[in-house]
Amino acid sequence: MTFARCLLFLATGFLGFAQTRDRIATGFDDIQAAKIRADLTFLASDAMEGRMSLDRGSEVAIQWIASEFAKAGLKPLVGDTFLQPVPLVEYKMDRARTTLALRAGGVTKEFKAPALIVSYPNDGVYKGQLVFAGFGITAPELKYDDYAGLDAKGKIVVIFNHEPQEEDANSVFNGKGNTRYANARAKMTNALRHGAVAVLVVPDPNHKPGRERGTLDGDNQASLALRTPRPIQSIDGETSIPVLTLTAKLADELFALTGQKAADLQTAIDSTLKPSPASFKGAEVELHVATAQRKRGVSYNVAGLIEGSDPTLNAETILYSAHYDHDGLRVDGEIYRGADDNGSGTVGIVSLARAFSKNPIKPKRSIALVVFAAEERGLLGAYYYADHPLRPLATTRAQVNFDMIGRDEKDSNQTKGLIDIAADTSNEVNIIGTRYSPDYRNAVVRANELVGIHLNYKWDDDTVLNVLFRSDQYPLLMHDIPAIWWFTGFHPDYHQITDTAEKINYPKMEKILRLAYATGFDFGDTATPPKFFPAGAAR
Fold first, then answer.
1. pLDDT, the chain, mean
2. Do 26 and 359 meet the contact criterion of CB atoms below 8 Å apart?
3. pLDDT tops 80 at residue 352
4. SS3 state at 377
């Protein structure tokens, strides 16, 4: 549907876009399924070798995106280049030499994998007394603090996975959905802020059985044997502390020292939303963290700017983002092409770069377009940007993040029984995180009068697949920015060699990108940009 035909569909109440056809029409009409198909066919081709972070295919993707930004006339955001270096360290853990020694009552017991799992790049010895910190969450806006009255300085904290009141629809912790605090990295950062030297994450004992993520489709024993181990990467030089995930059996050994049952402690926290004290009776832990091999490398975020038209408001930023990396090659040479994940998002950003550039009238606020590095390795490019922003975070008014915007959502082994998926999703996109900004959601709804795609918010009620934490909007969400993930959902080809360009629903991608473009003009021009609600808005 062309922009002119869209305008005929508009109701008189949609004044923001109906008043001036010329304001956004050129860029709107430039977003076309045929152009998207041509770009994505290249980006997901065998020549890109699956775009594994720090591998050759990833480097080609970086140069292609930068070239397209330059051709579109974007302003470089890193001096005279579009490339923001992201220093990385790639490593493997030495499972045999990575150990946990528990000293209590004059007895020392040693544990190693598979009783514990750790991925940490810095070899060393980390030791301290054990302290219990509930779920490891400090959330002032929710009037909740597991560290209230607790001295964690120089200690090793034991915390439950997930969040309090997970099965309570009326919980301040987003009812039965996740809040931004349930993520292990957020809990690590909070422990570090309280002076802890390491974190031991144990299963929350009252977690409802059967509420675990399923395996990926196609990951049978034969295919798993062919899957190249995904390299562990971290941001080189980043300030952090080790986070170990313990089995339930090892957790039981720890809590036996307190004389209390972990399930009772969780029940008390769920009931009162107050810390539930537990003493490990002076028990100490000594962690030996060892890596088997390490190498340093540099990847790049690719970042360009469309300067805003208002001399004052152009200092503010609307951020569009995606990630370009994927999973590389299988052992047998087959390629994880990553057409949907996340060739679709990358091509979407390039399409918007062209659209905003070609449109003769620009939004009043500036438009930053960033394609992040190393998302598949742990949102590393986005975390690095959040710590080293190219535009001030204080004046970044909204983030539109694309990750997998090219397919029709289908039930899969991973999602079966955990989320309701409509029989027909060929005209649907999921918008994730708008409980933190109803203003953002309302802007998308307004712009959707031009497009007419079904907007679904079901993933805001997810606590099992942890979708809120799994893409590049999350690091900026932790900085109180209305940061929202646009997502067409999982499908059986997710992280399989069958995620190929011919399976993309290109007309739907065109609609999603036109919607995002129109929404950006709303964000860019409005006198009152979207507000962020730290506690989440009422449902």
1. 94
2. yes
3. yes
4. coil
Q: Which of 481, 525, 523, 320 is nearest to 392 (CA)?
A: 481
* E runs forming strands in 236-360: 243-246, 284-289, 291-306, 317-323
Tokens coding 444: 């998308």
pLDDT band at 457 (very low <50, low <70, confident <90, very high): very high
Could you tell me which residues come within 8 angstroms of residue 204 by beta carbon, excluding any fewer than 6 positions away? 135, 160, 161, 162, 166, 266
Residue range 192-205, pLDDT digits in tens: 999 999 999 999 99
Per-domain residue ranges of the chain = 3-90+295-525, 95-289
Question: Looking up tokens 């996975």, which residue turns up?
Answer: 161
Mean pLDDT to the nearest integer, 117-143: 97
For residue 194, give the amino acid letter.
H
Q: How many CA atoms lie within 13 A of 520 on its CB side?
A: 34
Find out if CATH 3.90.480.20 is the number for domain 95-289.
Answer: no
Query: Which residues, in sequence order, are CB contacts of 19 under 8 Å at separation 6+?
Result: none
Phi then psi for residue 407, to 5 deg, are -120, 170
Q: How far apart are CA 386 and CA 478, in angstroms?
A: 9
Strand ranges (E), 115-255? 116-118, 124-132, 138-139, 144-145, 156-160, 198-202, 232-235, 243-246
Q: Hey, what CATH class is 3-90+295-525 in?
A: alpha beta
**210: phi > 0 → left, psi -120 to 50 → alpha, else beta; which?**
left
Model confidence pLDDT, tens digit, residues 253-282: 999 999 999 999 999 999 999 999 999 999
Closest CA to 376 of 513, 178, 228, 192: 228
Q: 126-164: b or e for each residue (b if 16 or more CB lie within 10 Å)?
A: bbbbbbbbbbbbbbeebebbbbeebebeebbbbbbbbbb
* Radius of gyration of the chain, Cα coordinates, nearest whole angstrom: 24
Predicted model pTM: 0.95
290 in helix, strand or coil? coil
